[in-house]
């Protein structure tokens, strides 16, 4: 097999539910392959391989260190609980393995900085697994909100991600356990909201975050529903709402001075093969104020691969450039991750400190 077609070889560290989706994505990506699956036990790793119909050549390994010690593993996907990220992402980087890390990436920015520094020191690519960033719809939406004649300047963003968790989830899922994923709904669903807000604002950090009053916590003190407002010095604002206690909703609205964009499935498209959104520019009312002129136009964007496979493809492309051409790791992905974590931290601090305004300092 020539260098041009040699795939990036992944090791998966942990058999979490989300790893099923990403293992499929690795299999679908034309420049990646799964070499090994690591778990705390060989039996569990083998079961994951079998249950997900991975190639018979996939190597079951235990414990997690065995994945990092395997000389043929180029990169690792880490879907472990957030409390374990700093340990295993740093260990992977020190072993020279490129790191695709599940979100939320850390419990706080101080932990994330340890991960990112390890990746820099060892010249490995870092990327978080925020999949919707890689859908071609996202690029098309960027084109429209970047058009000064049709959209103008961003003024406000509203982002919501909620889903109605069942009782088993609310009692037993790692996302409600303070020792595993202490950020709860804020770190899980809120991560997407905050990323979308930053995306719409070209990753310019807000100046302040203010959590909305009356967040809902479980008996262990983990947030299972909350909201917040973000403010910029020039008058821009954004609102986010995330919850494990409301019907499945994942919508984003970006409003500019001349136009508005609305998408109702921005995290996971209704259909895997395509994604749509609406856009309107210079809208007003009809003469008797009985309708809009013009009405929002619907834009549909097809995808050559599922968004998670496109994510793997892009990550693997960057890894190949480092591995085979000596390129430096792409810096934009860790920078975007760090900004997302900074806002998460500020919202959490506002919740913990009586809903006070918290400054966000990059």
TrEMBL record:
<feature type="domain" description="Gfo/Idh/MocA-like oxidoreductase N-terminal">
    <location>
        <begin position="8"/>
        <end position="127"/>
    </location>
</feature>
<protein>
    <recommendedName>
        <fullName>Gfo/Idh/MocA-like oxidoreductase N-terminal domain-containing protein</fullName>
    </recommendedName>
</protein>
<dbReference type="InterPro" id="IPR055170">
    <property type="entry name" value="GFO_IDH_MocA-like_dom"/>
</dbReference>
<dbReference type="Pfam" id="PF01408">
    <property type="entry name" value="GFO_IDH_MocA"/>
</dbReference>
<dbReference type="Pfam" id="PF22725">
    <property type="entry name" value="GFO_IDH_MocA_C3"/>
</dbReference>
<dbReference type="GO" id="GO:0000166">
    <property type="term" value="F:nucleotide binding"/>
</dbReference>
<comment type="similarity">
    <text>Belongs to the Gfo/Idh/MocA family.</text>
</comment>
<dbReference type="InterPro" id="IPR036291">
    <property type="entry name" value="NAD(P)-bd_dom_sf"/>
</dbReference>
<feature type="domain" description="GFO/IDH/MocA-like oxidoreductase">
    <location>
        <begin position="140"/>
        <end position="261"/>
    </location>
</feature>
<dbReference type="InterPro" id="IPR000683">
    <property type="entry name" value="Gfo/Idh/MocA-like_OxRdtase_N"/>
</dbReference>
